[in-house]
Amino acid sequence: MRLAVMASGRGSNLQAIIDAIEAGQLPAQLVCVVSDRPEAYALERARRHGIEALAVPARDLPDRQAHHDRIAELLDQRGVELVALAGYLRLVPPRFVARYRWRLMNIHPSLLPAFPGLRAQEQALAYGVKVSGCTVHFVDEGMDSGPIILQRAVPVLDDDTPERLAARILEEEHRLYPEAIRLYAQGRLRVVGRRVHILPAPEPAG
Ligand code: GRF
Asked: Is 9 in the pocket of ligand 1 (CB under 6 A)?
C-alpha cells in the first residue's frame, strides 16, 4: 500500500508511522512526505529515513485550490493510495477531499465530535472534561467532521496543563495512527454512511 504523509510541523506522528513500518508492523510503503512549510522538521525526518521530502509552499501558487491541485498531482505521479494528514495545518479544499474520498485520514487530539479545530487540548481543559483522547478519522468537507475510524481515551488530571495533557494524548496518537493505517492497508475499513466498520482480520492460512 503506497502511503503519503502531509505534515506542517515537527512530525512526531510521522515518526511513529515510519517506526511502525521499519519494525515490520505496518505493511505500507511511505513514498513521500509533503509539507507546506519547507523548514518543517517532518521533512528532515523523511530525509533521514531515505523518504522523498517534498516542500510545496502555498505562496508559490495563486490560491488554496491551486496549491492542493499541485500536491495532488505530485501524489498521483507517485501512485499514492492513502494520504495521512499528520499535523497538517491547512484546511484541504473540497476538490482534494473528493479526489481522495475515503483515502484521506487525519488525526485529531480530542474525542471528536468534542473540541474540533485548533488547540483541542486547551478546549478540553477549559470545558472541564474528565476524559479526552484522540481520534483518527477520514476527512470530509467539514472541519474534523469525517467518519471516525479509531478513538482512544486519555484521562484528564486535576493538575494538567495544556502541554501535559497534549503530551499524554500524543503518546496514544503514536499508537493509534499506525493502527488505523494498518487496518486500511489490510482492506479492513468500510465506510457505511457516517460509520466506519472494521472487518475482522482474515484467519491465518493452514
Ligand atoms: C498532533 O497533536 C495531531 O493530533 C494534530 O497535530 C499534532 C501534530 O503533531 N493534528 P506532530 O507534528 O505529529 O508531532
From this structure: yes
In DSSP terms, 83 is beta-bridged to 4, 104
DSSP sequence for 133-172: EEEEEE--SSSS-SPEEEEEEEEPPTT--HHHHHHHHHHH
How do residues 83-127 score in pLDDT, each as one tens digit?
999 999 999 999 999 999 999 999 999 999 999 999 999 999 999
Annotated catalytic, 197?
no
Give ∠ CA 14-47-2 in degrees, rounded to 5: 55
Ligand 1 touching residue 11 (CB < 6 A) = yes
* 133 ligand 1 Cβ < 6 A: no
pTM value is: 0.97
Contact by Cβ (8 Å): 85, 105? yes
Per-residue pLDDT of 31-47, as tens digits, reads: 999 999 999 999 999 99
